[in-house]
Amino acid sequence: MRKNLTQRLLQAVIVLAGVMLLIFVMLRIVPGNPIETMMGEHADAATVARMTAEMGLDQPLYVQFFRYLSSAVRGDFGTSYSLGKPVSQLMGGAFVNTLVLAVFAAVFAWIVGIACGIFSAMKKNRLPDRLFMGFSLLGISLPVFMAAMFLQYIFAFRLKWLPISGTDSWRSFILPAIALGWNSAGQVAQMTRTTLLETLQEDYIDTARAKGRGPLGVLVFHALRNAMLPVLTMMAVQFSGLLSGAVITETVFSINGIGRLMVQAISGRDIPLLQGTALLATFVVILGNLLADCLYSVLDPRIRKED
Amino acid sequence: MLRTKQKQIEQAADLRLQSQIGEEERFGDLMRRMARENKTAVISFFVIILMALAAALAPLLTPYEENGMDLLHRLSAPSAEHLLGTDEGGRDVLTRLLFGARVSLLIGVVPALLSLILGAVLGVIAGYRGGITDAVIMRIADVTLAFPSMLLAMVMMYALGGGILNVFLTLTLVNWANVARVVRSQTLKLKNSEFVEAARIIGVSRDRIMRRHILPNCLPTLLVLFTLNIPASILTESSLSFLGLGIQPPNASWGLMINTGRQYLYNAPWLSFAPGAAIMLTVLAFNFLGNGLLDVLDPRMQKQ
Fold this sequence. Notes:
The structure holds two protein chains of two kinds.
Chain A: H1 2-28, H2 34-39, H3 45-54, H4 61-73, H5 87-122, H6 127-141, H7 144-158, H8 174-199, H9 203-210, H10 215-244, H11 247-252, H12 258-267, H13 271-299, H14 301-306
Chain B: H1 3-20, H2 27-37, H3 39-56, H4 58-61, H5 93-129, H6 131-146, H7 149-160, H8 164-191, H9 194-201, H10 206-242, H11 254-261, H12 270-297, H13 299-303
């Protein structure tokens, strides 16, 4: 297993380097000199040239890339053009908000998703099952911004139960978390239902029943334990998805997180900031996938023993 | 597309190859079986056809012009004359919804088709040639897949600029990798099958084997991928347009309509909610159809 994990880790590093290169190249093909964009129309040619040289933008692309790579490894992502602060500092502050939002969303998605999934599996093909599964498909098909705006309209504007936007108290995170977690809840519910139904067909379930376990005991001690494995790994993947996928939710609810920072970077044509945020988000996703793989091999003895 | 769905497609395709090479069910039979077994998929299919018709015949279905301003009736609520109300320029929302359907459906279908072609070609080449070609293509695919698709699309749209052609290009480059992976793994299995061996022995060229013997066998799987990539594209584009990075006005896609309507969310919620419902219905219909096709192709589903 150790060999397998080292291989995975190495692969993740290669992919991360590839992503870095991809972002770097894509942002360099944007027409126009970023310094001119930053300084506006009134900049004189000499200043632009001096600034360009100072920031190393006159160097060949590969030199620029390796410089960026070496400082990024040390935690330095350059300075934001539009906000004038170090990108790492901006991202640090924003990451906390995104993390809180993602945790709230994950808790919502997992509790609701698993509960609906179990209930559906128990009442397979009957009304509650149809209802829950329809609901979860709705969750998967509803664009995040629609869910976000709908919740905002009903619960914040009409009913005035919760704050419309911002990050002032924990209550501000409830609506965004539901909007963001909705989709994941649908996925978890479907996954739980499918794997639980598969598990309930296994021979050891019959054995447990034959030994006189009640239906609840079979469900909790025999079926769920085994059925939750794929669900757990999916949840690890999802959490990183929630962290990186909060762009829309953060925009609708004005939460100063990584996603919103990215949108700001785009509208301000702020390449260092966009580069940093995109990289951070991708890093989180790769890490999540890696963790999911590890989790799977730790939890499933069959995989643990394989090599 | 969802990672779990992707896995299911890969598994279904593999199982299908194991169980059915030689006694291939005809395409028409497959469709007939789906029609019998899965009513939701059939209904979804007709919903999609209806929507396509409505989009194509938009000018005939409505008395209003797509961009016909009527400043006296700005932001009016849904009524008998304007079934879904009017927007900030007094334009009929239903009319714009019908015309927006053209853009949004196109954005679903074109990138899905292009990424299907690109992914299938690269996947079959990677799988059949192996070696360094395979390694290079698949590492690029890995990098693309590691990137959260929305972020990749955002960065690309930023680099390329808005507009429908760039949306096509971006969504194609975001979606090709999952197609390539499935086709590659199918190719690896088919490569060693007897009929490909036979073709090789009688001297059929490598290109012809890929074209005539391997790709046709991937077609059912490709159809599933195509159907499920359409709603994924529609959702990604609507998110992009929502952030102002997708379709540019005066063209209207549903996502863009929601974005402009957002400013009036509190006094004219229909501006955003009508196109939102349209997106949802479309995505739901394609998802149902795609899942129906997948169930028909998945040998595991037939036993039950």
